[in-house]
Structure formats: C-alpha cells, structure tokens
UniProtKB/TrEMBL annotation:
Residues covered by the GNAT-like C-terminal domain: 172-313
A Pfam family this chain is assigned to: NAT_N
Gene3D superfamilies for the chain: 3.40.630.120
Full protein name: DUF5596 domain-containing protein
C-alpha cells in the first residue's frame, strides 16, 4: 500500500507510517490465534471480562467491516516489525498512536499484534528453557495494562503499546514482585508492577530469583548490577514518608545518578499516572486516603515538582 495513502486514512503522520514500512520491510508477520481459541488465551493473559468481550467482538475476521485495508496493513506490518526484533530488550514503538475513539479495531490493534506474537515469544522462551510459570506470568501483564488503561479512560495506552513489546520479544521477565529487563551496560532494569505491597522481603525474593535466572537462561549475558529509573527513587519522598515505609526502604538500595531534566520522563506526569491512574483530575479532586497520595498532592500544591531518578546497586 502507498505510505501516504495509509497515513492519510489512519490520520497519523506519514513519517510514522514510513517508519513501520522501513522497519518491517517484507519480513514475515505472525498469524493471530483462531478466534475459537482466543477466550482461553485472553484468560491466560489475565485480560478482564469487559476487555476480553471488546477484543473478541472486534476480532479481525476476514470480511469484517471494522477492518479497513489500512488497518489490516498496519496490523500485519506492526506485527512483523516487532517479530523481527525477537530477543531485543530495548523499548520499541510498534507503530503510530491511533485515534482510538474510532472504534474497537483502532483501540485494540496493538493488542491483536501482541496476541499474534504470543506463540513466537513462547518458542523463544522454550529455546532458553524459561519455565512456563515465568513465561505466562510475564505475558499476563497484558491484562493488567488493559485494566489500567480502562481506568485511565484511554490515557495509559500510548506508553503501554511500546512497553508491552518487551514482553513479546523476550526482553523482560516477571520474577515475583519485580519485573526484570535485560539490558546493556551490565545492568538488569527493574520495574515495579502494580501488584501489591513493595515489601523488602518480596523485593529480596525477586532479586534472588533474578540472580539465578539470568545466568541460567541467558549465559552469554553478564550482569553486575540492578538499575531502576522511576519516580519512586525521588529523594523528595523522604520529606513526607516515614523511614520504615516500603518506598523509602526500596530507595535506600540504590546509589542515584545526578538528576537530569532532559531526556527523562516528566516526574509529575509519572507520579499522577502511577499513584492516581489519572492525568486530568484536578488536584483538589484526587483522593487523599494514603500517605503517598497526600504527599503527592501537597508537594504539587506547593508549586514543587516530582523527579524521575535513575539509580543502581551491585548485583
């Protein structure tokens, strides 16, 4: 298809469609699972019933009026683009952010790409002897992200569509409380899913699993440290939270790098995203039920800003 025509029909910048065209090239895509098998797969991926019903209703069946030629082209080439980087561990945009208010096919196009790639990444996991429980726990982050996006009224997805390419390329693994991202520079990147208290015991257990997991399943990669980039590492939180809080105890594990405003996520946006799951609610309407919520609101009401900080500690 003509790139300019596809971009015009999708209502996105032509440069973004051209990027998909160049990176995917004529590489093979991956087929979607049979629609009859989709409910079981969606359940395995922890997709909630309301999200699963919407995904199934807009399934890209042949002849579906929901799926225009340009949408089918983008689904095919986006899937090929991500599959071509199987084994990669950097963030990867699978394609342009679509106007998701145009219907469920538009809203869930990159979800269908994720589903199409499950078999490929499962084969990659088997090649590296990754246990089934780790494989499925990692891939089930799809359901959590869809639920968060629904809670955020669609504001979460532009970040999530790139984030989830880590899971279907074998770049990230959920090992207990933390997610661990393979990386360059000798460090495993830590991510903190929204899955309960960040207790020192749960963190210790996850780190211990990682110390055994990566040498066993990726012996050609040598890691000497854990790293993390997060608003959770902002030292300003110590002004508000007690020293024995889980967040402060997590912070104390890290040696921070100097703070840089450029080339890092906006700390205020990320705090609102993760603490309140809202980017548009006025401060005076946000809940103040926890010490963390009160800290975030009081800090921003005082005209101060949160920081995204990067740190690491020896493995």
């Amino acid at each position: 298809m003509d790139v300019d025509d596809v971009a015009g029909r999708l209502g996105v910048p032509v440069e973004e469609v051209d990027r998909v065209h160049r990176l995917a090239g004529d590489r093979p895509s991956a087929p979607l699972p049979a629609r009859a098998d989709a409910p079981t797969l969606l359940d395995r991926l922890a997709v909630r019933p309301d999200d699963a019903a919407e995904i199934l209703a807009a399934w890209p069946d042949p002849g579906s009026p929901l799926w225009t030629p340009e949408l089918r082209w983008l689904l095919d080439r986006s899937t090929a683009l991500v599959r071509a980087d199987l084994g990669g561990h950097a963030w990867l945009a699978p394609g342009p952010a679509l106007p998701r208010d145009r219907g469920p096919a538009w809203r869930h196009l990159y979800v269908y790409a994720y589903l199409a790639l499950v078999d490929a990444v499962r084969a990659y996991h088997r090649d590296h002897d990754v246990p089934d429980d780790v494989s499925w726990a990692t891939l089930a982050d799809l359901g959590n992200n869809l639920a968060v996006d629904r809670r955020m009224n669609g504001d979460g997805w532009p970040v999530m569509q790139s984030w989830l390419t880590l899971h279907v390329r074998g770049g990230l693994y959920e090992l207990g409380r933390l997610q661990h991202q393979r990386g360059d520079g000798g460090a495993i990147g830590l991510h903190i899913p929204d899955s309960g208290p960040l207790t020192p015991e749960a963190v210790d257990a996850s780190l211990e699993r990682a110390r055994a997991f990566f040498p066993r399943h990726f012996p050609g990669e040598h890691y000497t440290a854990f790293s993390c980039g997060s608003w959770l590492l902002d030292p300003q939180l110590r002004e508000y939270l007690p020293e024995d809080s889980n967040i402060i105890r997590f912070q104390r594990r890290f040696t921070l790098e100097p703070h840089q405003e450029q080339d890092t996520p906006d700390g205020d946006v990320e705090v609102l995203r993760f603490v309140f799951r809202s980017l548009s609610t006025p401060l005076d309407r946000l809940p103040r039920r926890t010490a963390l919520q009160r800290a975030v609101i009081d800090h921003m009401r005082a005209g101060r800003h949160w920081q995204w900080r990067q740190g690491r500690f020896p493995m």
